[in-house]
Amino acid sequence: MRSSVNAPMRFALALTIAIGAIAVSFFLAALLHGSFIAPHAHACCTGNFYGGNTTYVNNATQVIYPEWQNSSQGPTCNCGVETAMAITNYADQVYYGNNTHNKFTKQSDQNTVDSGNQTTTAESQWGTPMTTSTMSKCGGLANISKDTGTDPRTIAYDAYTYTPPGYYFGNVIYRADLVADHPTAYATQVAEATTMLAQALETSPTGNTDALSVSVAINGGLHSVLVTGIFANNDPAANWPADITGIVYRDPQYAFNSSKFTVDYSSWAQYGLNPYGGSYHYSLWSLYYGDSTTVGDGLNTSDPEPLVGPYTPNTSQGHPYHWYHGWNWVQRITPTNNPDLAYVGPYKYSGITYPLTQLTTP
Amino acid sequence: MRTPPRHTRRRPQHPQFGSRLINVGAWVVSGLAILAAIVCIGVAAAPSTAHAQPQATTQIQWIPLTSTSAADVQAAVRKSRLLGVDTRGAGDHPHDLARLGIPIAITALPLTGYTAPVDSFALPVLDAKGSVSDVVVAWLNPDHTALFVGYIRSFDVSLTRWPSLPDAGSASATVKSKHGINPKPGTQPQLVYFPFNFTDQWRGKIHWTAGGIGPDDPIWRIAGTDGQDHFVGNDGQAFHLSELPLAAHH
């Protein structure tokens, strides 16, 4: 039987099918790559947001930022302590459903948290690296290193101690030797570390949807900030490394209303926040933890490695570094994890999901 | 009278052959498209490969500047990826970057022995009421022919005034009253930032709040008749160069 459709019409029909197939393929490709997972994803943007709520963050930081000064103590080094306090106030809002039960209500509460290391009952189960009289005055609970301010393990323990029941926090570490692909290029390492950090903001390990902020050590460990969100072109939970375009953090050295910085990814990973005099002056993650002026120099004497406990570096046992030659932060962990231990993950690489895993102890 | 179909006059000598050719071609195109679609989906569904490389955003995004006019600087800044992030919703991010204000040149204070002085433009972002909700910092290359948007500083409670400094005339008057020095004739106060000693601030050795730490928080530089630079911070105080907390240079 002869078709009633003539040749040009058939050509048009076939062309329509072809274009349709291409359009569907692009849609499915994008879907499989995670571009459409965020509710706000659309063609306008160079990054979808994964992170916390502005009102919650403002409520958490408003009365405790910036770093506290008093006549007897002089200038302070409370950045790490402040991030733990802000995490606590954020968790209080999530837990109680309002802003009236925040644990910390004034700047001087920083002193209360600082002095946590002044009694032996506050020591880590691993012991203490120095006598009470020589402790950092900005230490907080359970120091394990001779840090000028506070160390990452302490921030985890502070957050765990002061947050409501059911909230656990741990020190998560990224080093190239700890992940499956062992990348050698610094650019790849920092991209993977930032992806792992982004996952902490994207998902809660307890299944809640609240994106608790993360306390992140920057500038070779000299400073800590509260990372509250990231921008990415694809889903950090499904891409390794993800295409991250920006990072949002609150700097505790400023009052809450001027503490929010949104930095381009290349500032975060390479250029630094302020390049004058060398990017190491405000390096963000363009240096490893423990570095001073160049990648891998390990010359930051203010933020040394642990001095007590199972993570104290021991080269002869094949454990030369703990925090050094990588990056670390404090994030929410599950009740089955232990705030006194360190972790790596989670991440998804080559189709395999690697869960949050306790670092082996020598 | 019935009019014959127009196409009967234009039909070629071998109409069936031509029609088949078109049909075959069309279905070939269609088949290739479907094949391409399958390949495309397959590539997308494949897991990340070993030793995946960082995405293009790792690279510093230098955007060419046609000139340093306000319009050209604004146009270049708008092309940056940081200005293109999704600002909708209640997330802790900048919330509306649509209204870019006039760019203000913030110069790196020239100092002997310090490397990489990077000049910049800072652009206030205005909210619907005309207050300042954010400041965009764009670094300039040495030739000032390209810029890179490094960061945005946000104020969840908008500022009625930015920079938070006395005006230029008041700053000059402050230098005269506090240091007893007049501005050098023929010079104008200049907005600058300097290589701040972040390390000592974070170690708790100093506590500096007068500004000049970065282009988002500049201070005034006033050339005096004594041949020295004088500075006025956001606290309204006058400073000599020796009083600025400069980073150690390497």
Q: Would you give an account of this structure?
A:
The complex is a heterodimer of chains A (362) and B (250). Chain A is 26% helix and 16% strand. Chain A is built from seven helices and eleven strands. Chain A has helices at residues 7-32, 54-61, 79-96, 109-114, 152-162, 186-202, 265-271; strands at 48-51, 168-175, 214-218, 223-232, 244-250, 260-264, 326-333, 342-344, 347-349, 352-354, 357-358. In chain A, strand 3 and strand 4 form a beta hairpin. In chain A, helix 3 (79-96) runs parallel beside helix 5. Chain A is globular, with a radius of gyration of 23 Å. With 250 residues, chain B is α+β, with helices and mostly antiparallel strands. Chain B folds into two domains: 59-159; 168-243, no CATH class. Chain B has helices spanning 7-10, 15-45, 70-78, 168-179, 198-202; strands spanning 63-64, 104-108, 120-126, 132-140, 146-159, 190-193, 219-223, 229-232, 238-240. In chain B, strands 1-5-4-3-2-6-7-8-9 form a nine-stranded mixed β-sheet. Chain B is globular. The relative contact order of chain B is 0.11. The model of chain B is unreliable at 1-15 and 37-51 (pLDDT under 50). Chains A and B meet through helix 1, strand 1, helix 2, helix 6 and strand 4 of A and helix 2, strand 5 and helix 5 of B. Strand 6 of chain A pairs antiparallel with strand 5 of chain B, so a sheet runs across the interface.
Short characterization:
The complex is a heterodimer of chains A (362) and B (250). Chain A is of the alpha+beta class and 362 residues long.
